[in-house]
Amino acid sequence: MTYSVDFRQKVLKVRDAEGLSMAQVAKRFDIGLATVMRWTKKPDPQTTRNKPATKINREALEQDIATYPDAYMYERAQRLGVSKTGIWHAMKRLNVTYKKKPQAPSFHPRRTAVLS
After folding, report:
1. Which residues, including other chains, have CB under 8 Å from residue 4's CB and lie 6 or more apart?
2. Greater confidence, 64 or 110?
3. What confidence score (pLDDT) does residue 54 get?
4. Contact criterion met (CB below 8 Å) for 64 and 104
5. Who contacts 13 (Cβ-Cβ below 8 Å, separation ≥6)?
6. C-alpha angle 18-21-27 in degrees, rounded to nearest 5
7. For the residues 52-69, what does the mean pLDDT come to?
8. What confidence score (pLDDT) does residue 31 get?
C-alpha cells in the first residue's frame, strides 16, 4: 500500500524546514531511506505499471478461447502452463467475461420422465 500524497508532502516539508538529512527524516517518520530519496525525485505515487504480460502468449490464449469457449480457467491454465490467476488477469486484459445464461434450458430429461 502506498503512502498518501499528504504524508509525502509533510515529510518533504519537514525535511526542508528543519534542514534534516534524508537519513534523519527516514528515522523520524519510521520509513525507509530509499523511500525518502525516491520522494525527493518524484513525490506523486505511481498509478500505473508499465510492464506487459510476459508469460501468457496472447495469441495462444485467444486461440484457446475460440477452441474451448466453455472451458474453466483452471483447464486453460493447465493447457497454457500458467496459473489460474494469471489466466484471469489475461482474460481481463482481453475483456473476455463469462456470463451464465439467464434461463435454464427448456428441455430437461428428468423433468419429462417424472411427468410421464
Report:
1. none
2. 64
3. 73
4. no
5. none
6. 95
7. 86
8. 94
